[in-house]
Write a structure and sequence with these properties.
The protein has 106 residues and is mainly α. The chain is built from three helices and no strands.
């Protein structure tokens, strides 16, 4: 019987080294999976800390690229200021015309 005691007829010839190796391998895989899962949970909670490690600090001498939304806000603010100044000039002109109309009516 070259089956190494598969049928249970020869209990002393059963080789358990394969089973032990498989058991140790599965224990190692299980440990790796658990550690990976733990690291994933830690990374989700501390995402900002981890990202801060990998981001480069801005260089002091270089001018960073302007943020699109910041420049858009500045353009909008400039437009609002221009409209305000035009409205003030228009109001002053209207006020001047009404004053001249009132003077002419007197």
């Amino acid at each position: 019987m070259g089956a190494h005691g598969v049928l249970g007829n020869e209990p002393e010839s059963i080789d358990y080294s394969v089973h032990e190796a498989w058991n140790e391998a599965t224990n190692v895989y299980l440990l790796v999976i658990l550690v990976s899962f733990g690291l994933l949970m830690y990374a989700r909670k501390n995402k900002r800390k981890i990202m801060r490690i990998f981001t480069l600090p801005p260089a002091a001498g270089s001018n960073p690229e302007p943020n699109f939304y910041d420049s858009l806000q500045k353009v909008r603010l400039r437009q609002q200021l221009e409209m305000y100044s035009l409205a003030r000039k228009f109001e002053q002109q209207q006020q001047g015309q009404t004053d001249s109309v009132q003077l002419s009516m007197e």
